[in-house]
Structure formats: C-alpha cells, structure tokens
Amino acid sequence: MNSDKENVAASTPLMIVVSAPSGAGKTTLCNKLLAEFPDFTYSVSCTTRQPRGEEADGVAYSFLTKEQFLELVKQGKFLEHAEVHGNYYGTLGKTVIDSMAAGKSLVLDIDVEGASQIRNLMADMPDDDILKKGFLDIFITIPSVSVLRHRLLKRGEDTVEVIEKRLKNAVAEMARANEFSHTLVNDQLEDAYAELRAIVLNKAAGIGAV
Fold first, then answer.
1. pLDDT digits over 87-110, tens only?
2. Domain for residue 39, yes or no?
3. For labelling alongside 184, which of 65, 147, 155, 199 has CA 20 to 30 A away?
4. CA–CA dist 182, 75 (Å, integer)
C-alpha cells in the first residue's frame, strides 16, 4: 500500500487556494503541509510594492512596476489580482500552469476576493483542464471574533486601532466562508492540521492517486 506522500505525488498536481482572516493561523497550517509533502510549494505572486529587507525577486514575490503589472492585467495574464493599500498583487496563470505541468502542487495564499476570481475562472474551464482538475479551495476560520482578538493582542505586532481594523475585515471575510468548498476551524492547531491534511488527501485520491 502506498504512503500518503506517494498517493499525493501520483495524483494530478493540486492547486490549493487557501484564505483566512489575519490571525487565523493560515501560514502555520500551510507551512506544516509543505513540510510534510515535498511536492508542494507556495505559488510566487507578483506585486508592485517595494521589496522589504532581504526579499529577493522571484522568491517571496516577483516585483514589477505598476506599468508592467497593469499591462499584464490588460493582457489577461492573471488568475487573480487586486489592489491593496495602493499596491497591486496578483497570481500569474503561466506561473501556476508551468509548475503544475512539472508535477508540482501549489498552495495559493490569497484573500477571499482572489479566491472568488479563481473560482469563477474554474467554472468556465473544461473539466479536463489541469487547473480545474487540481483546484481545491479551503477557508480557515477561528472559533469566534473574541478568540481572534485575543490572538492578535497576544501577538503584539499591531496597535489596537490596527487590530480593530483587522477584526472588522475578518468579520467580512468570514461572511464569505460558504463560498468555499471546505471550511475548517483552527481552534487546536494539530486538530486543524489533521483536517486540512485529510481534505488534501481526499482531493488527491479523487483525481488519480493510487
């Protein structure tokens, strides 16, 4: 009997779209998934913001000028894109397709609006398209807004005003959780990861794992 890693590797590559409110633990859960499954990697997004610290082009992000980005939007090259706080962010279709064609499963860490854009694209694609076959959308949420407030305060990275803004955004994002095929609650990390892992393995099994 094949191992879970072998089963995932034998399936059509996955395009795992993950969204969550800030502070829900999305990054921790996704990093655990990538650590366990070597065929998984993060999708590298494009952005017009300036690199921070030692960020290298093509690693965390592909850094573009605003003019370059908008030209790609005009050409329809993005699976999803958005403007956030005056900067543009987006996922190039070619980046995803090339990685999946090479057998790599991708994790796309994007917001609910970006997930909606990709979901709408998938609806119009033929069923045998590599993107549509591997598409999996997951929303990670928290037990309550009060729990999220506690986590953000404990993290100590933001002012009270910023935290309240994040909470307001979180409420709006959680209201759209039903748009996703799967929703999991990150109350206890290991339980949440076990659920995330099961969702991914079930998807892999459904599209060709042995």
1. 999 999 999 999 999 999 999 999
2. yes
3. 155
4. 32
Alpha-carbon span 83 to 80, nearest angstrom: 11
3-state secondary structure of 57: strand
What is residue 104's DSSP assignment?
-
Of 198, 194, 148, the residue nearest 168 (C-alpha):
148
Q: Which pLDDT does position 54 carry in this prediction?
A: 83
For the beta carbon of residue 30, count every other beta carbon within 10 angstroms.
Answer: 22
Is the distance from CB of 201 to CB of 10 less than 8 angstroms? no
CATH classification at residue 25 = 3.40.50.300
- Give the mean pLDDT per block of 10 residues along the chain (210 residues): 66 92 90 94 93 84 96 96 89 94 93 94 93 96 88 83 88 94 95 96 74
Backbone torsions φ then ψ of 20, nearest 5 degrees: -170, 155
Count of domains for the chain: 1
- Return the pLDDT at 208: 55
In sequence order, which residues have a C-beta less than 8 Å from that of residue 119 and are 6 or more positions away? 17, 135, 137, 179
How many CA atoms are closer than 13 Å to the CA of 30, on its beta-carbon side?
Answer: 24
